[in-house]
C-alpha cells in the first residue's frame, strides 16, 4: 500500500490492544497496546540475552568464536566505562552494557528489511537519555550530597568569572539529555528515510520500462552504499551513546572535575 | 489507508446498528465486540497516519514508554544478575589461570637459575680444588727431587774429594819414590861404567844433583 512512502516504516501498529482509562471513545485514555515497536523491543532484549548467555554457556578456557565475541563485547564496554569513569564507575557496568547493547541491537535490527526500528522514535531515545540523567543526578546527590553541585563550579576558576561560567555549565548539563536523545533519534530517522527514498526511486523507475531500469542503477548503488553507511551509523551511534553515558556517569562519580 | 479507514469507520456503525436491530441479544454481543475493537484501533491509527509524523505522535508514547520500561528493566536484570557475572567469571577464571601459570613458570625459572648457579659454584670449587691438588703435588715432587739431587750432589762431592785425596797421596808417594829410582838408576849406570859404588855415595850424589 505505502510501498515507497518513506514515513510508513515508522508507523506504530497495535498488535495486542491494551487501553486504560478513558470513556471508551477513540483517542481517550492511554494506549498501552503491545505494538510492533514493543515486539522489537522484546526481540532486542531476547537477542541480546540469547547471545550473551550462549556465548558464556561453554565457559571454556580457550574460547570459541561465539564465546570470544561475547567476551569482546563485554571487555569493550568494560574498558570504555573504566577509561571514562574509572574503577568506581564500574558499578554502572550492567547499566552501560544494557544501554549499549540495547541501542546497538535495536539499530541493527532496524536495518533488516520489514523490521521496525525502535530507536527511530524520539520518545524511546528521550526516555533512555532521561534515564541516564536520572541515574547521574540521583547517584551524584546520593554519593556526594550537596557537593555534587561542585560539578557546576569548575575548580581553579577565579571568582569574578564564576557568574559567567556557572550558567554555562548548567546550560551545558541541561542540554546533555537533549543532545544525547536527538543525536541518536536524528541519525537513525534520517538514515532510514534516506534509505527508503533511494530504494523508492529504484522501484518507481523500475516501473518505467527499460529506460527506467537503466536510470534505476544509480539509486540502487546509492541504496547499497547507504545501507553500508547505516550499519556504520548504527554501531557508531550506539558507541557514542554509551561513551557519553560513561562520561556523564564520571561526573556523578567524580563531580569536582 | 486513510480512505480505507474512513470507509471502515463509516461502515461499522451502520453494521452495528443493523445487528442491534435485526438479531437477538446474544449474537449481537459476540458480533459487536470485535467491531468495537477494530473501530477503536482504526481511529487511533487514523490519527497517527493523517496529521502527525509517526515519531512525534503522542498517542503512541504511553505504549512505547511502558514497553521500553518493561523490556529495558528485563534486559538490565538479565544482564546484571545472570549474563554479565557469567562472562565476568569466565574472564576472571582465565586471568587467574594465566597468572598462576606465569607464577609457576617464574618459580621454575628461578629454580633453574638456582640450579645453574649451584652447578657453577660446584664446578668452580672443583676446579679450584683440582688446581690446589696439582700445585701441591708439583711442589712435593719438586722438593723431593731437590733433596734427592742434593744428596746425590753431596755424595758425588765427597767421592770427588776422597778421590782427589787419594790422587794427592798417590802423587806424593810417587814423588817420594823418584829419588830412590834415580839413585838405583844412577848406581846401575855407575856400576856399569865404573864398577861398584856404595849406595850411600850414589844417593848423596843424586841428592846433590837434584838440589842443583
- Multimerization state: heterodimer
What structural class do helix, strand and pairing data of chain A support?
A: mainly alpha
Percent of residues in helices of chain B = over 70%
- How many helices of chain A? The count is 7
Structure notes:
The complex is a heterodimer of chains A (257) and B (212). With 257 residues, chain A is mostly helical. Chain A is built from 7 helices and 4 strands, in the order ββββααααααα. Chain A has helices spanning 36-55, 65-85, 93-110, 122-144, 162-206, 210-215, 217-253; strands at 14-16, 19-20, 30-31, 34-35. In chain A, helix 2 packs across helix 3 (93-110) and helix 4 (122-144) runs antiparallel to helix 5 (162-206). The N and C termini of chain A lie far apart (55 Å). Chain B is rod-shaped. Chain B has 4 helices and no strands. Among the domains of chain B are: 1-48; 174-211, no CATH class. The chains are: A mainly alpha (257), B mainly alpha (212).
Summarize the structure.
The complex is a heterodimer of chains A (257) and B (212). Chain A is built from seven helices and four strands; from the N terminus they run ββββααααααα.
Relevant terms:
heterodimer; A: 257 residues; mainly alpha; two-stranded antiparallel ribbon; B: 212 residues
Task: Annotate the secondary structure layout.
The complex is a heterodimer of chains A (about 260) and B (about 210).
Chain A: E1 14-16, E2 19-20, E3 30-31, E4 34-35, H1 36-55, H2 65-85, H3 93-110, H4 122-144, H5 162-206, H6 210-215, H7 217-253
Antiparallel strand pairs in A: 1-4, 2-3
Helix pairs in contact in A: 1-2, 1-3, 2-3, 2-7, 3-7, 4-5, 4-7, 5-7
Chain B: H1 2-22, H2 25-50, H3 61-193, H4 199-211
Helix pairs in contact in B: 1-2, 3-4
Amino acid at each position: 500500500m505505502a510501498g515507497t512512502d518513506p514515513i510508513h516504516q515508522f508507523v506504530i501498529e497495535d498488535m495486542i490492544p491494551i487501553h486504560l482509562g478513558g470513556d471508551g471513545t477513540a483517542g481517550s485514555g492511554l494506549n498501552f497496546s503491545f505494538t510492533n515497536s514493543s515486539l522489537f523491543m522484546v526481540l532486542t532484549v531476547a537477542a541480546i540475552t540469547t547471545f550473551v548467555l550462549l556465548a558464556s554457556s561453554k565457559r571454556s578456557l580457550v574460547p570459541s568464536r561465539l564465546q570470544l565475541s561475547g567476551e569482546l563485547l563485554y571487555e569493550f564496554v568494560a574498558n570504555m566505562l573504566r577509561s571514562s569513569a574509572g574503577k568506581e564507575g564500574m558499578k554502572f557496568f550492567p547499566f552501560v552494557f544494557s544501554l549499549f547493547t540495547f541501542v546497538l541491537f535495536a539499530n541493527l535490527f532496524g536495518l533488516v528489511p520489514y523490521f521496525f526500528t525502535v530507536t527511530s522514535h524520539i520518545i524511546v531515545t528521550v526516555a533512555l537519555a532521561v534515564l541516564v540523567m536520572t541515574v547521574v543526578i540521583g547517584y551524584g546527590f546520593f554519593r556526594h550530597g550537596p557537593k555534587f553541585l561542585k560539578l557546576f563550579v569548575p575548580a581553579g576558576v577565579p571568582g569574578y568569572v564564576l557568574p559567567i561560567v556557572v550558567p554555562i555549565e548548567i546550560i551545558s548539563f541541561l542540554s546533555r539529555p537533549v543532545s544525547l536523545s536527538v543525536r541518536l533519534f536524528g541519525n537513525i530517522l534520517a538514515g532510514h528515510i534516506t534509505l527508503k527514498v533511494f530504494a523508492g526511486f529504484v522501484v518507481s523507475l523500475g516501473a518505467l520500462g527499460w529506460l527506467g531500469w537503466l536510470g534505476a542503477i544509480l539509486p540502487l548503488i546509492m541504496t547499497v552504499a547507504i545501507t553500508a553507511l547505516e550499519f556504520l551509523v548504527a554501531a557508531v551511534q550506539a558507541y557514542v551513546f554509551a561513551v557519553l553515558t560513561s562520561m556523564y556517569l564520571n561526573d556523578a562519580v567524580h563531580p569536582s572535575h | 489507508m486513510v480512505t480505507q479507514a474512513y470507509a471502515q469507520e463509516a461502515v461499522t456503525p451502520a453494521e452495528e446498528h443493523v445487528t442491534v436491530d435485526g438479531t437477538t441479544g446474544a449474537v449481537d454481543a459476540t458480533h459487536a465486540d470485535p467491531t468495537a475493537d477494530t473501530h477503536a484501533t482504526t481511529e487511533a491509527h487514523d490519527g497517527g497516519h493523517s496529521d502527525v509524523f509517526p515519531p512525534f505522535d503522542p498517542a503512541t508514547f504511553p505504549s512505547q514508554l511502558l514497553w521500553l520500561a518493561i523490556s529495558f528493566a528485563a534486559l538490565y536484570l538479565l544482564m546484571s544478575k545472570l549474563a554479565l557475572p557469567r562472562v565476568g567469571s569466565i574472564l576472571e577464571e582465565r586471568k587467574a589461570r594465566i597468572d598462576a601459570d606465569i607464577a609457576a613458570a617464574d618459580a621454575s625459572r628461578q629454580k633453574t637459575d638456582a640450579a645453574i648457579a649451584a652447578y657453577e659454584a660446584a664446578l668452580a670449587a672443583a676446579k679450584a680444588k683440582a688446581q690446589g691438588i696439582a700445585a701441591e703435588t708439583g711442589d712435593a715432587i719438586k722438593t723431593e727431587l731437590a733433596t734427592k739431587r742434593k744428596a746425590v750432589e753431596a755424595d758425588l762431592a765427597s767421592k770427588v774429594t776422597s778421590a782427589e785425596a787419594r790422587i794427592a797421596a798417590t802423587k806424593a808417594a810417587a814423588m817420594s819414590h823418584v829419588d830412590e829410582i834415580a839413585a838405583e838408576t844412577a848406581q846401575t849406570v855407575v856400576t856399569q861404567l865404573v864398577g861398584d859404588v856404595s849406595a850411600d855415595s850414589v844417593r848423596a850424589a843424586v841428592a846433590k844433583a837434584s838440589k842443583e
